[in-house]
Design a protein that fits this description.
Blueprint (H helix, E strand, L loop, with lengths): L11 H17 L13 E2 L2 E2 H39 L1
Antiparallel strand pairs: 1-2
Helix pairs in contact: 1-2
Length: about 90
């Protein structure tokens, strides 16, 4: 009997997205937050601790955006391939 997980059949890009999001989340929690646990220097008028959180959220947004665009590209390619086979 084999045990299958939820990500067993998932594309590599989904696994990489999950790993990136989890590492970004770790950077927002203790002990990953320790390098940012200070007020100075100010980044764009925000204390460094707030800028760290904003940067983590922006990084997560970029990871999700890239994964979304890759999924759209793969779906379009798959539909093109299936329409060519139907001809």
């Amino acid at each position: 009997m084999t045990r299958t997980g939820r990500l067993t059949g998932a594309p590599l890009r989904h696994k990489l997205c999950l790993a990136a999001i989890l590492s970004i989340l770790a950077g927002m929690l203790w002990p990953g937050y320790l390098p940012a646990l200070r007020v100075e220097p100010y980044v764009l008028g925000l204390p460094f601790a707030y800028a760290w959180i904003v940067g983590c959220i922006a990084a997560a947004f970029i990871v999700l955006l890239v994964t979304y665009r890759a999924d759209r590209h793969a779906a379009a390619k798959q539909s093109d391939d299936s329409s060519r086979r139907a001809r």
